Amino acid sequence: MMIDEKHVELRTLSIDRSQRAGDGGHSRKWWLRRNTIAGVVLVVLAGLMVFAYRAFSSNIPEVVVVRASAENNGGAESTVLSATGYIVAHHTINVNSKVTGRVAWIGVENGDKVGIDQVLVRLEDQEFRASYEQAKGVVESARAYLEELLHGSRPEEIQQAQNNLDEARATLRNDQVTFNRIRELASSGVVSRQQLDDSTSKYEADKQHVNSLERAFELVKIGPRPEEIARARGALQQAQGMEDYARSQLEATVIRAPVAGTILDRTAEKGELITAQFASAAAGGPRGSVVTLADLSDLQVELDIAQADFARLGLSQDVIVSTDAYPAKTYEGVIAQISPEADRQKAAVQVKVKVLEPGKYPGIQLRPQMNATVKFLANGQPKTVEASAGVFVPSSAIHDRNGKKIVLIAFNGNAVAREVQILSLRSGGAQVFGLVGGELIVTSAPAALKDGDHISVRGQK
């Protein structure tokens, strides 16, 4: 009995494998459902995180930045304004042709220096030369005719007229004797009435002929009428005018430099047609000019000054000019011209500054269209002052905070306030102390933006 009871107890402690095999399918399904639910939860959490990030980031203000540029401000202590512009020639001349013709020769290149009246271009002149020769012939003919009238009749002509008159008078006397004889015979009935009529007609015709020759002889001795001489003078003057015009047309085929200067642009080539009327922009069309030249010893800087800064300037005000090409070289100048009207689209006034010594530095040539920076000096201040380092900042980036001037810098996604000191005002901004250059300066941002706020820079992801 004892052995049977122990056997029963051992059987209760054994593992029922049939029951375990039946529960296995249910366990696998439970694990599958749990993994699926976990995946869905993760997806939902990720979506909530993206939504939260977007909702949070939409509140970050977007700003516009510009990189601060460091520069040396020569004369900062005396500079009332600084502006940039372009060097221009005081007088630029487009040399055109007075006549229409084809280029036969051109003798200059870009950059050549030319003197006044130097030959630049020659046009084909065959037609103009022929017209001039024809006009000369007309003048010679008119002059000869006038001289003929002024000198009157030659002695030979007067003698010829006298001989013709004497001959006519002799014929008249002979016809008169014949007429008297026939008239006496007719009264006696010896000759017929017809013979008397014929003799009478011939005698009267001879008398008229003698009278005509007498008048002609008197005119030959007197000479031409004053009216005829005046008409001949007018014809000669008209012919001379035509000759002068033809000569000017021929001379215009040789194009000369109107002033001494430098060739800036050669716009025509040999064989091209040059017109004095309407140029064409089409390829192969007639050109309107042959060269462009200017006197490079007379240069100016052309600038657009903001109306807000215009009151700081005046005629003959001293300036210092520097160029991007030669930043270490400075030139003295004065304000030579201020436009009488403003440009309302630019909200600016055009100012021209005369460069006093463009050839100040040997081997350095200032050229038109170079970028130039002009520093306008306060009246009575020296033109050369020790340089003071500074950074240019646009006007829109400078703010007043608690009586101080500050700018906001974009740094690591935050706005950082930086106090600055204004060294000099410039067109569109100021040169300041307190920056080193290269910083990203905030130029456009919400009014409530302050130091430490998170920001996003427009154009950057």
Would you mind describing this structure in some detail?
With 461 residues, the chain is α+β, with helices and mostly antiparallel strands. The protein has six domains: 22-55; 62-70 and 389-457, conserved putative lor/sdh protein from methanococcus maripaludis s2 fold, CATH 2.40.420; 78-90 and 295-384, Beta Barrel (Elongation Factor Tu (Ef-tu), domain 3); 97-123 and 255-290, OB fold (Dihydrolipoamide Acetyltransferase, E2P), CATH 2.40.50; 129-149 and 229-250; 153-223, Helix Hairpins (Orthogonal Bundle), CATH 1.10.287. The protein is built from six helices and 24 strands. The protein has helices at residues 2-13, 17-57, 126-151, 155-188, 193-222, 226-251, and strands spanning 62-67, 69-73, 79-89, 92-95, 101-106, 113-114, 119-123, 254-256, 261-266, 273-274, 291-294, 299-306, 318-323, 330-338, 348-355, 371-377, 388-394, 399-401, 404-411, 414-419, 421-426, 429-433, 440-444, 456-457. α3 (126-151) runs antiparallel to α6 and α4 runs antiparallel to α5.
